[in-house]
């Protein structure tokens, strides 16, 4: 994705702790319209240690990966987001697509 497409709205939109909503994020970011190769690229950036999975300690930097001035997610936001995205219950996220709420 490109940094000039207005992603800095996330700083304001989710500025308050515990205000992060994955559903709202994916609606507003237009992420669902991205190609699978673009989503793979985003996944690789979120997977900071290149383990092939997004673990809890990487997920909390989710907003910062899109906008460097954004806050980290709170523990409760991170856990809720992870639980919703972790379809097989292994405690980590294996593909970007599972992060997008139905
Ligand atoms: Ca990882």
Automatic annotation (TrEMBL):
Pfam families, sorted: EF-hand_7
Claim: Cell membrane is one of the keywords in the record: no
Keyword Thylakoid: no
Domain EF-hand, residue spans: 34-69
Keywords annotated in UniProt: Calcium, Metal-binding, Repeat
GO CC terms of this entry: cytoplasm
UniProt GO MF annotations: calcium ion binding
SMART domains for the chain: EFh
Superkingdom of the source species: Eukaryota
Binding site for Ca(2+): 47, 49, 51, 53, 58, 86, 88, 90, 92
PROSITE patterns to which the protein is assigned, alphabetical: EF_HAND_1, EF_HAND_2
UniProt xrefs under InterPro entries: EF-hand-dom_pair, EF_Hand_1_Ca_BS, EF_hand_dom, Parvalbumin
Function comment: In muscle, parvalbumin is thought to be involved in relaxation after contraction. It binds two calcium ions.
Family the entry assigns: Belongs to the parvalbumin family.
Protein name: Parvalbumin
Organism: Pavo cristatus
Lineage: Eukaryota, Metazoa, Chordata, Craniata, Vertebrata
């Amino acid at each position: 994705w490109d940094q000039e497409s207005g992603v800095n709205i996330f700083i304001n939109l989710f500025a308050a702790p515990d205000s992060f909503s994955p559903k709202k994020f994916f609606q507003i970011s237009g992420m669902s319209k991205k190609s699978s190769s673009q989503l793979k690229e985003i996944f690789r950036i979120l997977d900071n240690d290149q383990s092939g999975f997004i673990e809890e300690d990487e997920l909390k930097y989710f907003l910062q990966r899109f906008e460097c001035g954004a806050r980290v997610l709170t523990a409760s936001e991170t856990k809720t987001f992870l639980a919703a995205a972790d379809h097989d219950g292994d405690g980590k996220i294996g593909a970007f697509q599972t992060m997008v709420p139905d």
